[in-house]
Design goal:
This protein has ten helices and no strands. It is mostly helical.
């Protein structure tokens, strides 16, 4: 099914999706490096965001595979309930609203009729994203002791009263540098790969144009030489 899919194909929605991911990666990195420049509540919100992604990472697969009516009347309300629960776990809802725009972009297949090829392409991308998420969550959970804290030191968390603002517990909350490291990797790697594909494509187009111009020049030179020899 996926053997002939072109994962290098970019639609306008792809640029929106990677734009959001670049924004998330930047926020995660800035909070990781310089948490003192941001509201302390954002640390908790980003940690909860990565936990919530565990639920939402499957949304693209379900919306691509399931019939339109089932997506609209079953899965969309179900994910809405998860979002409502997520809303009660965060302190500042700004990051929630931005994230929901990303989820709506993933779920666009529930609101439109697209070809089976595009649905299969989206399903393949979503499956890869889900596998990447599970790989990362195991990696950061077992390797949490070697993850650099940068600005999220124990001293900073105590002085900023971070633990007074959180509404839950667990590894992601008690060691916020773990989910924030994961979030940065999770959102930045696809963006870097996307940029690599764009640059590679531009380089290939420039090479093809150069080869075409070289071929035209060679052909013109040959024709001129042939005509000159013919006159002699």
């Amino acid at each position: 099914m996926f053997a002939n899919l072109n994962f290098s194909r970019n639609s306008p929605f792809s640029f929106v999706e990677y734009g959001f991911q670049a924004y998330y990666a930047t926020v995660f990195l800035m909070v990781w490096m310089h948490p003192e420049q941001h509201p302390v509540s954002l640390i908790n919100d980003l940690a909860v965001l990565m936990a919530f992604e565990f639920i939402m990472v499957h949304s693209g697969v379900f919306m691509a595979v399931m019939p339109k009516k089932l997506s609209l009347f079953v899965f969309f309300p179900m994910y809405g309930l998860f979002a409502y629960g997520f809303n009660h776990s965060v302190v500042n809802t700004n990051i929630l609203y931005i994230y929901l725009l990303t989820v709506l972009n993933r779920m666009r297949f529930a609101f439109s009729d697209v070809s089976p090829e595009i649905r299969a392409l989206q399903m393949g991308k979503s499956a890869l994203k889900a596998m990447f998420y599970f790989f990362l969550i195991f990696a950061v959970s077992f390797g949490n002791s070697i993850i650099p804290k940068f600005g999220l030191t124990d001293d900073f968390l105590e002085k900023s009263h971070y633990f007074d603002t959180v509404k839950s517990s667990g590894l992601f909350i008690e060691k916020p540098y773990v989910p924030i490291c994961m979030g940065f990797i999770y959102y930045s790697v696809p963006v870097f790969y996307f940029l690599y594909r764009i640059i590679k494509k531009l380089g290939r187009n420039n090479t093809d144009s150069f080869q075409e111009e070289k071929l035209i020049f060679s052909k013109t030179t040959y024709n001129q030489k042939f005509k000159s020899d013919k006159k002699q």
